[in-house]
Specification:
single chain; alpha/beta; three-stranded parallel beta sheet
Length: 268
């Protein structure tokens, strides 16, 4: 019997019909509840939050395997000086790497205004596929702060910017009907760069490491944290080291492959 592996939510939906005749497994990090459709696949989510969203879509309990996650190893990154040159940021400019494609653009705009009022020279670097880029930049232009937002150049990867940034931030999602961005946040959490993620992010539902990654109550707390890093950057080193150690232990490629094999073996 043929076995099909679908990677991602869209790929999973594309296998709805063939899942009636073939053994289909789907590894899913994003769940869009506005697209209510399900088949006979067995889904492997990246978090308990994602599993709950799949059940809301109509997948039965026996179709949802235990969560598994991992991040792609990246032994080589672009050096920080080259990254900052590519971003065209000034010397001493505070660089914030935005994590996730679905961050609330209004929250981002408010954060920029807060830091500007504190006389902090900030550059927010947006991911290649940031969904709300157009309304964010349009509103930023009307406030005269569009230069505070930088689109990640095609020559750089998110991981390159993460290593070169002063800190990283995963804003609250702009759509309440979507479970998203667990893998992107885990990648950011595996880097020594200070990271702020709010407590309601789906990554918080991951046992043992979720609470270490998603700790911020709200954007106002994140703003105070950024101001502290800008003035006393060494204070975050201990927290970052503990987080990185925990995340790297649980997201090794060998562990991911082993866990994925176990899920599909159980399915078979």
């Amino acid at each position: 019997e043929k076995k099909i592996m679908a990677w991602g939510f869209d790929a999973m939906l594309a296998t709805n019909r063939c899942s009636e005749n073939f053994d289909v497994s789907a590894f899913v990090d994003e769940v869009d509840l506005s697209r209510r459709s399900c088949g006979m696949q067995t889904c492997i989510p990246t978090s308990p939050c994602g599993a709950a969203a799949l059940r809301t879509l109509g997948f039965k309990k026996h179709q949802i395997a235990e969560s598994v996650f991992g991040i792609e190893p990246c032994p080589l990154v672009v050096d920080a000086i080259t990254v900052r040159d590519s971003l065209r940021v000034q010397n001493g400019e505070f660089v914030v790497s935005i994590v996730g494609d679905f961050g609330d653009w209004k929250e981002l705009l408010s954060m920029a205004v807060r830091l500007q009022s504190a006389n902090i020279n900030v550059a927010f670097v947006l991911p290649h596929t940031f969904v709300s880029r157009v309304p964010l930049l349009k509103s930023a232009r009307s406030h005269g702060i569009a230069d505070m937002f930088i689109q990640l150049p095609s020559t750089l990867r998110q991981i390159d910017v993460l290593h070169a940034a002063d800190c990283a931030w995963g804003p609250a999602t702009s759509r309440s009907d979507r479970s998203c961005g667990v893998l992107a946040v885990l990648e950011a959490a595996s880097v020594q760069t200070p990271l702020a993620v709010q407590c309601n992010h789906p990554v918080s539902s991951i046992p043992s490491i979720g609470s270490q990654i998603a700790w911020a109550e709200n954007a106002l707390e994140v703003a105070g944290w950024m101001l502290e890093i800008n003035s006393v950057p060494k204070n975050e080193c201990e927290r970052s080291s503990a987080r990185v150690s925990a995340v790297r232990t649980l997201t090794t490629p060998s562990r991911f492959v082993e866990n994925l094999f176990l899920r599909t073996a159980v399915i078979a």
